[in-house]
């Protein structure tokens, strides 16, 4: 009897926690939707010249890339033209 009551109480607490998390997430989404302006309302029209861009280039020299506290250099001294 005690084991059944304990299991029932445990499931009740687990389900309550899941419901509380879901309700909190829904409330945060609603708040985000209410207070963040829509992009359509803030759109700024930009005019570019018809010949823009007429040319472009990307040059990377001595590129070093790393990740984390210890900088493991994945690409060292790479150059791309």
Structure in words:
This protein is of the alpha+beta class. It is built from 2 helices and 2 strands. The protein has a two-stranded antiparallel sheet with strand order 1-2. The mean pLDDT is 79.
Low-pLDDT ranges: none
Rounded to the nearest angstrom, the radius of gyration is 28 Å
Question: Quick one: biggest sheet?
Answer: 2 strands, antiparallel
Distance between the termini: 76 Å
What's the domain count? 1
Q: What helical percentage do the residues reach? A: 40-55%
* Alpha plus pi helix count: 2
Mean pLDDT: 79
Going across the biggest sheet, name each strand in turn.
1-2
User: How would you spell out the order of helices and strands?
Assistant: HHEE
Gross morphology is: elongated
Question: Strand-residue fraction?
Answer: 5-15%
Class based on secondary structure composition and strand pairing: alpha+beta
**Count of DSSP strands:** 2
Structure described in brief:
The protein has one domain (2-80). Helix content is 47%, strand content 15%.
Q: Which helices and strands appear, and what pairs or packs with what?
A:
Blueprint: H1 2-35, H2 39-42, E1 60-65, E2 75-80
Antiparallel strand pairs: 1-2
Features:
2 strands; 81 residues; alpha+beta; 2 helices; 47% helix; two-stranded antiparallel sheet
